[in-house]
What does this fold into?
Amino acid sequence: MNGFDVTIRDERDWVSFGDTYVGSDAFKTLFREGMTMVEEAAAYLDGEGRDESRLMSRDGTLSYASETMRLTTRLMQIASWLLVQRAVAEGELTPNEALEEKTRVRLATPDPFKADVFGILPARLQDLIVRSRRMHARILHLDGLITDERPAPVAIASPVAAQHTLLHAAFGTAH
It folds into this structure.
């Protein structure tokens, strides 16, 4: 015995940002924005973007392909995170299940911005990249708030146990 009684705060005593956020109108708005951006990017890349890429130089085409791959990866991470959080809001997953390895969405740290490459890309693709990076940053921030919010168990020293430990240290064990 270390002289401490460990009291773990009851989770019912605190309000969970994650639980309240994923059920909020703000989350519903973010969800719609994110999914709309995914659909917009898919439509652009399958149509107008494909046509624009054909008009680019060889180097431009390589940059276009690279940046669209980054864009689609980022948007898939965003969509996956939003879908997991919506499942929590709808009671299909518990917050702890959403944090488990099997359902946890890995939000990669964004690649450094490449201004020299960015400048040669079509304007619509530039817009999608900027907006997706902004949304990704928002989601990284929210994910940090949601996953880091749970307080660690707090050890509270029992005054009696602490005195017992001091007596034991001073006088040893009585037999």
Summary: The radius of gyration is 25 Å. Residues 150-155 have pLDDT under 50 and may be disordered. The beta strands are 5-6, 155-156.
